[in-house]
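Annotated sample (chain length 175).
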Amino acid sequence: MLKRGIHAALNLDSGNLRLVLGVLFVFLLILSLTLYFLSNPWNARVLFFPEGATGKLVGERRFLPPRRGLTAEVELYVQELILGPADPLLSRIVSREVRLHSVIVQDGKAYVSLSREILEPVPDAALSFDQTLQTIANGVLYNFPRVRGLYLLVDGQLPGEQYADGFTIEKKLFK
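Output written by the structure step:
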């Protein structure tokens, strides 16, 4: 009797097999969607680079891995800006030699220190030095609304005498 019950349970016809596979598929689909929506491992960020032909700033969307804390997220964002665009039709905003020294975010203000290579013009640059700094600042302020003020430093110092009171860049609207 027991042997017949096991044999009957294992002996599925094609209709029952389809039903079991369908239920299993739906279960796995629901499980995977639940895990996808509950664990959002990537942060969508927009990096701005000049278009090669026109020089207009174009947003390039990237999904960056999460970091613990606002300081680490801003640091990763600036490192991605330094790496340059993925789209070959867009131009770099800083030379490849630029290094990020440090990022500190405190009381809604971000302090970003870049190496002195940022002062060197990018070959075939579409942006001036001031426009480059403004592009970096706008990108940080756009992607991180909790940052209300930004100070861009070169080797830990404020760039140029014209910025003696601090290079503060305000939020600007993008077109």
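Annotation: Residues 14-38 form the longest helix (25 residues).
Annotation: The helical segments are 2-10, 14-38, 70-83, 129-143.
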